[in-house]
Design goal:
Growth Hormone, Chain: A; globular; mainly alpha
Length: about 375
């Protein structure tokens, strides 16, 4: 819900603030401000979660999310609206950090694999539902999509009833020397950043690519993005089955291989049909990748430090999201969209697949 929910209402927002200096330029930051705020604040949120407690910070994050997210319903100043979106990003960082840490606190072994898969699946499904809701509400008013941010009120009683302190028992992989595994975490954060950097070629470039292939409306690009999310949700919910048979590095190879093949297919697409055929591969790769990286990260992090580990992970993901258009747009401008997709596929092979395969071979 954080950013894309209000995207359909942007034209109406720009029209409403057209008398405001640089309204067309500033309005674009309505979507990007939350991502930047998440990247900047998530690491601190993780540290606070370890000190203050996940449950308390989760409730504070949801309260801030409701207030800042729904601000578009009543604010009539573009600068104040931008500030509210920045606070929305801080709230999202708090929520993501706490939810990730709570899941790893309460579940172990195969149950944790299943819980992480369900979480990733829910995120993908939520994107489909709330972006669709924002599209419908945008026809009513540019302010109407902001009403979606009031829905988390329903979470407070659920947190009160169901979210408890984690069990006191130690876990199988818990180490006696509770030090943060910096090198291990840095590797996972780099992989998460690369994953999001490459994936974000899709929402930022695919609508324009669909027009190049003959689409008469941007909605065809939107349908393709939604298709990838559907397959991402299906893959995530089946992650536990994959994890029962393969190791984290092996799943990494599979997930990046799927995404790389999808991008290669996009680079060769000469019709909308071929474009649509490439999207399931990208969705499946993404659906397996993020629960896999999270579980791999937490397998070596002491329970008392999972908040800061989750914060670092969240920062890495949104840094990749923020940097992606900065890297992809110059390539698109100079060489075209097909070349940009080839670069994405090549980047996955060079930065991830080849090093991972080599490490796996050496260990054998």
């Amino acid at each position: 819900m954080a950013g894309a929910t209000i995207a359909p209402g942007l034209p109406g927002l720009v029209k409403h603030f057209q008398a405001y200096p640089d309204a067309d330029y500033l309005s674009r930051f309505i979507l990007t401000a939350p991502g930047l705020a998440i990247a900047l604040s998530a690491a601190m949120s993780g540290w606070v979660a370890d000190k203050l407690g996940r449950r308390v910070l989760l409730q504070c994050g949801i309260a801030l999310y409701i207030v800042a997210g729904s601000a578009g319903l009543y604010l009539d100043d573009l600068v104040l609206l931008l500030i509210s979106r920045f606070f929305l990003g801080i709230a999202v960082g708090m929520i993501m950090v706490c939810s990730m840490a709570l899941l790893t606190d309460h579940f172990q072994g195969p149950e944790r694999d299943r819980a992480m898969g369900i979480q990733s699946s829910a995120m993908a499904a939520g994107g489909i539902v709330f972006i669709s809701a924002g599209s419908v509400l945008a026809d009513v008013s540019w302010r109407a999509p902001f009403a979606v941010y009031l829905l988390p009120f329903a979470l407070f009683p659920l947190i009160y009833w169901f979210v408890s302190k984690p069990p006191a028992k130690r876990e199988e992989f818990e180490v006696e020397n509770e030090t943060f595994p910096f090198l291990h975490a840095a590797m996972i954060y780099a992989l998460a950043c690369i994953s999001m950097l490459m994936f974000y070629f899709i929402p930022t470039q695919l609508p324009f690519f669909s027009l190049e292939l003959g689409a008469q409306s941007l909605k065809y690009g939107g349908f393709a993005i939604a298709l990838s999310q559907v397959f991402s949700a299906v893959a995530s919910i089946n992650y536990q089955r994959l994890r029962a048979r393969f190791s984290n590095p092996q799943i990494l190879i599979l997930s990046f291989g799927c995404m790389g093949a999808g991008f290669l297919g996009l680079s060769q697409a000469n019709s909308l049909f071929v474009m649509y055929l490439s999207m399931p591969l990208i969705g499946i790769g993404l659906g397996f990748n993020f629960p896999n990286l999270t579980i791999w990260l937490m397998s070596r992090v002491p329970s008392t430090m999972r908040g800061r580990a989750s914060g670092g992970m969240t920062t890495a993901v949104f840094c990749g999201q923020f940097v992606s258009p900065l890297l992809s747009q110059p390539i698109v401008s100079d060489y075209g969209l097909s070349t940009a997709f080839i670069v994405a596929a090549s980047g996955m092979v060079i930065l991830v697949l080849v090093p991972t395969v080599i490490v796996q071979f050496i260990r054998r």
